[in-house]
Amino acid sequence: MSLPEEPDQEAWDAWHPTELARRLAGLSQSWCVVGGWALDLWFGNQTREHEDLEFTILRPDFRRFRQALRGMALYTADSGVVAHLPDHEKPADSIWQVWCRDEVEQSWRADMMIEPGTPEIWAYKRDPQLIRPRAEMVATTADGVPYLKPAGVLLFKAKHRRPKDEADFENAMPKLPARERSWLKKSLAATHPGHDWIGML
């Protein structure tokens, strides 16, 4: 199968999280849906359109996930550059994002993000000193899809504050449990001092 040198980075036709979970069924390694889809899994319904599907894995588990996603061509994504990752190679330690491409349909299906931490400990990628037990950061839907809890999702979204991030924060805040609200407030104070969301929490 020949691979295009420069695939269209906008050609997304992302899976639904349940399709991703189906393909990863049987894996014992840690993974979870993140980003906007994680919030909607927490809400229990889809609140807006999602242009992609993001999920995280731990770096030592990369080969297992590649095997589970057989049929997908993988591309590293770094600073706007998307490059094919040959089957026998693993991403360099400087790479934290790998896009999964359906070459038959010529569309991206999922964004596999590599995170620090361990199976037991969740670590914030932008500040690995900020840690928490993984069991307190990840929940699972009734049909078995693991997702990052909203406080973790919003911590990531706080950096860019795109319109969709602001909307996600406003939608999630009224439902955010007190413990999650407190953790997010402290984490924002440590990573984004003076952030507007701190006062709103």
Query: Under CATH, the topology of one domain is which?
Result: Beta Polymerase, domain 2
Could you tell me the strand content as a percent range?
A: 25-35%
Q: Indicate the radius of gyration in whole angstroms.
A: 17 Å
**Largest sheet entry:** 6 strands, mixed
On the 0 to 100 scale, the average pLDDT is 94
Number of strands: 10
Number of helices: 8
* Intertermini distance: 51 Å
Given the helix and strand composition, which structural class is it?
alpha+beta
Gross morphology is: globular
Quaternary structure annotation: single chain
The percentage helix is: 25-40%
The ordered string of helix (H) and strand (E) elements is HEHEHEEEEEEHEEHHHH
CATH class division of one domain: Alpha Beta
Strand order of the largest sheet: 1-2-6-5-3-4
Low-pLDDT residue spans: none
Gross CATH architecture of one domain: 2-Layer Sandwich
InterPro entries: Aminoglyc_AdlTrfase (IPR019646)
Organism: Bosea rubneri
Protein name: Amino acid transporter
Give an account of the 3D structure.
This is Amino acid transporter. InterPro entries: Aminoglyc_AdlTrfase. It is a single chain. Helix 5 runs parallel beside helix 7. The protein has a domain of 132 residues: 2-Layer Sandwich (Beta Polymerase, domain 2). 32% of the residues lie in helices and 25% in strands. The protein starts with 16 loop residues before the first helix and ends with a helix. The protein is an alpha+beta fold. The strands form three sheets. It has a six-stranded mixed β-sheet with strand order 1-2-6-5-3-4. A hairpin with a 5-residue loop joins strand 9 and strand 10.
